[in-house]
Design brief:
The protein has one domain: 2-Layer Sandwich (STM4215-like). The protein has helices at residues 5-15, 77-90, and strands at 23-25, 37-49, 57-71, 106-122, 126-141. A five-stranded mixed β-sheet has the order 1-2-3-5-4. The chain is elongated and about 55 Å long. The protein is built from two helices and five strands, in the order αβββαββ. 17% of the residues lie in helices and 44% in strands. The chain is of the alpha+beta class and 147 residues long.
């Protein structure tokens, strides 16, 4: 049975490439400068969905960690709110003509926003504002591809 994890991350990297800030998988690479605004593709979950007769279907989630850094003592949550809006527009689950994310080689049956919440922390030199945005996908393997 084909795991959808790497395909979901790839799809998010592709669809979010035009939102105006870098997108990284788990961490900012050592060879990259840490910018004041970026997105990490972090925690993923999946579980087989055996409720269909087709088999090879998955219920999956992925967490996007939107991060904005400011000098210590300053913060503007509107920055992460605005970036969340860009992400929600790119992965449209709200309108009639949805532009849901394509996750090849899987068929995407459904995409929805599972959760969104704020977080922040302070260090001696920075205030870090975060928006944690989780999407849920119900996907099925096309032609039962095994890789």
């Amino acid at each position: 049975m084909l795991s959808p994890d790497k395909y979901i991350r790839k799809a998010y990297g592709t669809i979010l490439s035009g939102i105006g800030c870098p997108i990284y998988d788990m961490v900012v690479p050592k060879d990259k400068e840490i910018l004041p605004l970026y997105v990490l593709i972090t925690t993923q979950t999946k579980r087989p969905n055996f409720e269909t007769q087709c088999g090879h279907d998955w219920d999956c989630t992925i967490l996007l960690d939107i991060i904005a850094t400011f000098q210590n003592g300053f913060a503007d949550r509107a920055v992460v709110d605005d970036l969340e809006t860009k992400i929600l527009t790119a992965i449209d689950t709200w309108t009639f003509d949805k532009t849901e994310i394509a996750i090849q080689p899987f068929h995407v049956y459904n995409t929805e926003v599972d959760d969104s919440h704020d977080d922040f922390l302070t260090t001696p030199s920075k205030t870090i504002v975060r928006k944690l945005l989780r999407f849920r996908h119900f996907v099925g393997a096309v032609n039962n591809i095994v890789s």
